[in-house]
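A reminder from the course coordinator: this example appears on the midterm review sheet, so study it carefully.

Given structure:
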């Protein structure tokens, strides 16, 4: 079984956000055949087509990283029943300039998180909608809505909730299968 490099993109910039903690915790979970690296998105300016004449270094770095990615895993909080603006901006940056989208044909999964019981349902579906519009093959099932996030981590940011760790481990096994299935289908 060869390792598949999974680029993790978190939708929160806050250093101690639960989405960022989950993104970091993925590497500590049993995920045979998957390796994880986090791609930071907070340094990108808001997308403006005028920048395409001389793209900011952050745009070029981000686009190159997505192009080189074997698979993508988004971990996002929910802001006002939607995805955070920084995440939508990353999707916009990667989809431009017109006809040169770095998202086209990529394989992805989505984990959404919230401090409440709904688990970021609104963000999850807003993100899926945007990803599908740029031709990303988003894993349809199982879905990962993780609520009550403050209770899942210790003070050092380690995932300590056993049932959540087991759920995410199962999700990652399904994600590995999804990646393999997408790789084997003609595009």
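Designed residues:
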């Amino acid at each position: 079984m060869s390792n598949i490099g999974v680029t993790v993109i978190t939708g929160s910039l806050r250093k101690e956000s639960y989405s960022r903690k989950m993104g970091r915790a993925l590497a500590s979970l049993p995920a045979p055949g998957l390796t994880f690296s986090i791609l930071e998105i907070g340094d990108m300016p808001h997308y403006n087509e005028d920048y395409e004449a001389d793209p900011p270094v952050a745009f070029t770095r981000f686009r190159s990283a997505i192009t080189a990615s074997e698979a993508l895993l988004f971990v996002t909080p929910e802001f006002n029943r939607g995805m955070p603006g920084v995440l939508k901006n990353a999707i916009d940056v990667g989809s431009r300039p017109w006809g040169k989208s770095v998202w086209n044909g990529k394989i992805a999964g989505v984990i959404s998180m919230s401090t409440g019981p709904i688990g970021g349902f609104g963000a999850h579906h807003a993100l899926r909608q945007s990803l599908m519009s740029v031709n990303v093959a988003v894993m349809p099932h199982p879905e990962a809505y993780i609520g009550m996030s403050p209770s899942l981590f210790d003070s050092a940011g380690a995932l300590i909730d056993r049932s959540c760790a087991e759920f995410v481990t199962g999700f990652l096994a399904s994600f590995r299968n999804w990646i393999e299935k997408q790789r084997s289908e003609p595009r």
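The two ends are 22 Å apart (CA to CA). The chain has a mean pLDDT of 95.
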